[in-house]
Each structure stands twice: as structure tokens, then as C-alpha cells.
Amino acid sequence: MSDEPIYLDHAASALLDPQVAAAMCACLTDTVGYGNSTNFAHAYGRRAAAKIEAARAEVARLIGATAPSILFTSGATESDNLAVLGAGRANAARGLRHVITARTEHKAVLAACQQLEREGLTVTYLSPGADGQVLPGAVEAAWQADTGLVALMLVNNETGVRQDIAAIGALTRARGALLHVDAVQAVGHIPVDVDELGADLLALSAHKLHGPTGVGALYVRRTPRPALVPLQFGGGHEQGLRSGTLSVHQIVGLGEACRLAGTRLPGEPARQSALTERLWQQLRPLGGVARNGEGAPRAPHILSVTFAGVDGEALRFGLTGLAVSGGSSCASGSGEPSYVLRALGRSDVEAAATVRFSVGCTTTEADIDSAARQVAAEVGRLRALAPAGA
Amino acid sequence: MQDRERDLVRRLFEATPRAGRGGPGWVSGAARHPPSGSELRWHWLVTAGRIEAARYEVRGCPDLVAGAALAAELLEGQAAGLPRLEPRQLLSRLAAPTEKLGKFLLLQDAAEAAAIQFRSQRP
Description:
The structure holds two protein chains of two kinds. By secondary structure, chain A is of the alpha/beta class.
């Protein structure tokens, strides 16, 4: 029996799949070795290139894309930055200087939008409804004559709320603007098809789907091809959009994680949905609890719960047997109440008293039942400790 | 050293010695920190002008909960009309971050409220 806390923080970083680790280790320990994938002059380089192209095909397959539309990056932040800054700057050069995004986006998108504002572009930050959804009508209402880019996430990392990206994609397509989709919390958890979404650009990350940290990908539609200004310069790798020697073992890990996610997709979302629902049904009787994103479509692996009458930091501190986040893992580190939950109308106190539970492939019903018991006990203890009538 | 001092926070947070609501005839005083939702209420049993027993109700971060437990111990034996609590010293003993000082002032504010109630009840 392990003394380790039950890991319910897969949305922060899903535990590395042993098969992924094995594939990466095989790369690192292969006595034949791998060269620079851009050097086709010898077998070492060709072997590396073959591994990378196989991984590229796996990533593409998982999101209904073609292999040449996949660029490898260092992770989701770089992918989001390249999409937002790259497309925003290219658009600006053509006079399209307006960007639409939402206040509930990940900071990798929001900070990139703020950078575009410093460069003279204008950005509209849409507010979601109380259920966390950004409606297509809100995007339409924010539209300006020079709107060139819409950047919205498919699944929110804190609440798990799913946006109707396909409807928004139809709108951007009809109006000739680009759509960037941060799909980091969606890929591998729900079926994702770039054509169905109408995405021109789409970011994903390996470590959110049981792959390694430090590697991700950006989908860039081939036809019509969005114009992107690169963020880094050098040898012109990745179609000139992301210079730098590719890390074979990292990319192999991403490819294997995508392959495995594809094999799990038929059944795993339903299983994970049942797990998060099982947890919610055991927390509801505590009273004074609210599920964030209630009423909206949600991803199966995330359950965000606000607990009334307790201090969020104290609750998480007391849950020694669980590994969870407050709001998001990013928000947990800042000490600030989650801006996402505040955008949904939660007060600072409510936002701080929120716990995000996120399950993964290794999570079991026994884990969930144990987690529910621990949360119930700690919430009860903290509420009993609080001033009467508070 | 830092870890050992933080262990004190963990121990006090989990055991919450002296937590409770007191009883009839006890003196009480409360203070709140609305931005964080933190709240503290002292309950003192006062005998011959001295705090014989100090109990507390608290909602707040782990440091504040631990601080309440530590302060309760320090309050016992003090003059109820003029209790001495030094939030900075409590913060230091628990190795709590300095940004928690605002919440630790609740310990002092609530003690002052209880002292005022005690003084108002004296003949």
C-alpha cells in the first residue's frame, strides 16, 4: 500500500504512462543512437527523422490532421504564444489589428494578447456566462471590421467547461478570420477533430495526456495556410516557424502518448466522467458546495468544486492524502484567487475556497471513494472550527 | 529549521488545542478580515480578572488556525482587561510568511474586543 497521496491533479500534469517512458528510454539508450534529424546524409540522422515523423503522424491522427500540419514545440505555452503572437503580428501587417479572446483563457494566451496590445493591436476580452461558456453570439457581437484572430480554448483548465468551438469556427471561417484553439485540456480526453472545430491553429501539450513535460505541438492548417511570424530564428526547422534542433526522445514521448490516448478514447472519457460524477455525488450531501460550470458541457476529467464556509488554503493543507489544486495549479502557486472563477461570478473568498479534482487513466473508483471521505471529513472539521453563525 | 517550524503549524492546525466555544458567562470578542473571509472569535473564562481558559473559533488559513492555538495558550494567565498579544512574534514562531500579518492582526483585534467586553461588564 503506497503512502503517496492519491493523485487527482492530472489536469496540472498527468502521470507519465510507463509505455511512454519506455519508448523515450529506448530512444535514449539505443546503442545504435540517433543523430540530428535534419541531417539525411547518414543513417543516424535518418533514424532520428523517421522517429520524429512517426510521432508527427501519431499527433496528427489524434486530432484528425495531416502530419505536415504539426509543428513540435516545447509545450503549450510556446504553442499558444506562437499562434497568438505569430498570427497577430502577421495579421497586423495586413491591417487586421483586432483580436477576440476570453477572460477565462489560460495565461499563455492572455499574456500573449497583452503583448499584442503593447504592440498596438486591440483585444476584446469576452466575459463568460455564469456557467463558464462563451457563446458564439458574444463573439459575433464583439466583431470588428479589422478582426483577424479569435483565440478561445476548447476545455477550460480550471472548470472543465467545454466551449462550442465548432460554432465559433463556423463564424470565423465565414468572416475570413483565424481561429486559434487552446486544446490542451481536450486532446486525449475527448475526441478532437480540427476540421470539425474549424480550427486554423490548435495547441496541445504532451504532459496533459500522460506524456513528458517539455514538449508540445501546434497544429497549423495547411489549406488555407495561416500566415505566422516565427518567434525564434535559426536553422529554419519546423517549416521555418520554430528553429532549433528537435529533441527526439521528447517527441517520441509525445507521439507515444498520442497513440495511447487514441487507443483509450473509445472508453476512457466515459469512465473518467463516471469517476468525476461519482466524486460529485459523494460531495453534494455535504451541503454548501457548488460545482463550477454546472449546466454547461464539461470535459470528463475535471471537477471544480467551491466549498462554502471553509478557507480554501486550509482545506487543501488539510487534505494530506490527496494531491489536488486550488482552481488551477497556476492559481495555486500565485496565492491570488483564480481569475477564471472570478470571471464566472465567484467572489474572491469563494474562488479561494475552490478545489479542482482531475482524474486520469490511473484513477480508480477506490481512489475516488477515499478522496470523497477525506474531503468530507476535512470540510466537516473546518466548518466545526469556524465561528458559529459565520 | 524552517521545516521544523512549519511542522508546528501542521501540528497545531491538525490538533487545534483549546478550540471551542466556551460556555455561559464566558467573555467573547470577534474580528473579521472580509477580503479573505477569515474570522476569529475568542471565548475566555475569566476568574479574578485573569484569563483562566481561552478558547477560539476560527476560519482562515492554516497559519491563522495554528496562530489561534498558540495565542490561546499565551493568553491563559494574562489580565483579561489588558491582554498582550504580539502578532509579529506569533508569525515568527510559526515561521509564517510576513504577508500573513494582516490575518494575524485578527488575533489581537479579537482579543481587544473581548477585553472591551470584559471591562464593560466589571462593576
